[in-house]
Write a structure and sequence with these properties.
Aldehyde Oxidoreductase, domain 3, single chain, elongated, alpha/beta, 6-stranded parallel sheet, about 290 residues, 4-stranded antiparallel sheet
Length: about 290
């Protein structure tokens, strides 16, 4: 497991350029016809990013970079940091620059910020729900194609931990792998023969847990087990290797699952179905109106 840092400059640039192209047409040739038609060139604008609800922001610097892309001479100032708990009505950042550029960038910047902050906010809620149990909240690979590094960053910002980033950096032997190769024993043995370590096995039953333990698994994922079975698995393993619970976890069930004694709970909905939070761009004053 790794905790994802803010994606690098190249990844951020790629995301912004792809997202802006959806609004501006092929290679930006068409542009924002509404802003171009209604706003005179070089009209100055001052605005603020404001949250309408309590949130944990994530991706604020990426959002500000979107505005900078379309208004290069603009001035942005972040007033909060990713990962802070922010109350409704708080100004997240102030922005001033060319009105056409800023308003053209508005929706793309908000889409990114609202989505990533939604993930961070939901993650923080789950983390706080199990805070005194010692159980760690994990994400999964159930992410939006092309946005995995950004969404996993948001999970980390929210206080969760990242599971494997992809198929390349972690071994997780699932039911289909077992079915294809013949048995849990064979799957684990084959992985070890390839020199792989930190081998995790997905188990649906206590019998599979026992077999995985005997075959030398380094970690076990307890998939869609009820709480009584989870407790039995915890007793069986007796702390010899870490146990991860997964499958249909909700805010209503996560506390009870943690209290069974599992080490980790992985939750697909953190990235798969977190609702976007409500953040708006509020125009405060045109600089030439200040007098």
């Amino acid at each position: 497991m790794t905790d994802c840092a803010l994606p690098g400059r190249e990844d951020i640039e790629r995301l912004i350029e792809t997202a802006l192209a959806e609004d501006l047409g092929e290679r930006g040739k068409e542009g924002d016809c509404t802003s171009q038609a209604t706003i005179p060139e070089k009209t100055p604008l001052k605005a603020s990013l404001v949250t309408r609800e309590d949130i944990v922001p994530a991706g604020l610097q990426i959002a500000l970079e979107v505005f900078r892309h379309l208004s290069p001479a603009s001035d942005q100032k972040a007033l909060v940091r990713d990962g802070e708990k922010i109350l409704a009505g708080t100004v997240l950042a102030s922005i001033s620059g060319d009105a056409r550029g800023l308003l053209t960038a508005e929706r793309t910047a908000l889409n990114i910020l609202q989505h990533l902050s939604g993930i961070a906010t939901l993650t923080r809620t789950f983390v706080e729900e199990v805070a005194d149990t010692g159980t760690i909240i994990l994400d999964t690979r159930k992410t939006t194609p092309g946005l995995r590094r950004f969404e996993k960053y948001a999970v980390a910002v929210g206080g969760g931990r990242n599971h494997r980033m992809g198929l390349y950096d972690g071994v997780l032997i699932k039911d289909n792998h077992i079915a294809a190769c013949g048995s849990i024993d064979q799957a684990i043995a084959s992985a070890k023969e390839k020199g792989l370590s930190a081998i995790e096995v997905e188990c649906d039953t206590l019998d599979q847990v026992e077999k995985s333990l005997a075959a030398g698994a380094d970690r076990i994922l307890l998939d869609n087990m009820d709480n009584a079975t989870l407790r039995a698995a915890v007793t069986m393993v007796a702390g010899r290797i870490p146990l991860e619970a997964s499958g249909g976890v909700t805010m209503e069930t996560v506390r009870a699952i943690a209290e069974t004694g599992v080490d980790f709970i992985s939750i697909g909905r953190l990235t798969q179905s977190a609702p976007a939070v409500d953040i708006g761009l509020d125009i405060s004053l045109l600089p030439d109106q200040a007098d």
